[in-house]
Automatic annotation (TrEMBL):
Signal peptide extent: 1-31
Protein name (record): Invasin family protein
Assigned keywords, A-Z: Signal
Keyword Signal: yes
Database matches in InterPro entries: ZirU-like_dom
Domain of life of the source: Bacteria
Length: 240
């Protein structure tokens, strides 16, 4: 009888020990983990539009070598609320990327003469915390007016036939004298002398000194100063 009781007690203890093990296995099954997703992505940043601002550095009233263009990217947005970082700039000449022209400002060169210049801007966010970190390139669509205003289609073209400057030579120093023959020298944006193909107008300061009057018949590249020109200034205008 005692033996049977001992066997029963032993079996009970074994069952009691098994219970926590079964519960532990059951608990582990309830904490099953799924296969991980791919990395979370956001949405690309966007610029609403891009313009350019023209600066007439030599104040000659035309686009010419040495003048500068500055890109103006506007209306940045990001659907995920990501913060904008420095954008990527690329200037183009007749739709071909200009090597090394990757700053917000670009200076016109002789190689740009006769070509259409514009800029493309790519919006960026911090690549260490955002994906994607770049948006679509947006091309300049407004600005570029010679007066620096926002009018224009977002491009600039250097007209090789436009007069960039005109100078006067042949005068006595420091003041021109009656009888001096002055010579106009017009230079086009190409850097070439274009006096022969330009329209020349010699002008004299008006009596009040507040403006300029065309000198009748003085339309050649040279002008000989007359006695009636004394006490007034002379200038020349060259146009194409």
């Amino acid at each position: 009888m005692k033996s049977l009781m001992k066997i029963g007690i032993t079996m009970f203890k074994k069952k009691a020990l098994l219970a926590p093990v079964i519960l532990a296995i059951s608990g582990a099954a309830l904490a099953a983990t799924s296969t991980p997703t791919e990395t979370v992505k956001g949405r690309a940043p966007v610029y609403g539009d891009v313009g350019i601002v023209f600066r007439d550095n030599d104040t000659n009233g035309v686009a010419s070598v040495g003048d500068t263009l500055t890109a103006s990217a506007n209306a940045f947005s990001d659907p995920d609320g990501d913060t904008a970082t420095t954008p990527t700039y690329q200037w183009y000449s007749d739709d071909a990327p200009i090597s090394g022209a990757n700053n917000a400002t670009y200076t016109l060169t002789k190689g740009d003469i006769g070509r259409v210049i514009r800029v493309g801007v790519i919006p960026n966010t911090d690549p260490s915390v955002t994906d994607p970190a770049t948006g679509a390139e947006v091309f300049s669509s407004h600005g570029g007016a010679i007066d620096g205003s926002d009018s224009g289609d977002g491009t600039i073209t250097i007209d090789s036939n436009a007069v960039a400057s005109v100078t006067i030579s042949g005068m006595s120093s420091p003041n021109p004298l009656v009888g001096d023959t002055l010579t106009a020298v017009a230079t086009c944006t190409s850097g070439d002398d274009c006096t022969a193909t330009s329209t020349i107008r010699w002008q004299i300061q008006n009596a009040s000194g507040t403006g300029w009057d065309d000198i009748a018949g003085a339309n050649a590249s040279t002008y000989t100063i007359q006695k009636g020109d004394q006490k007034r200034k002379i200038q020349v205008v060259a146009t194409k």
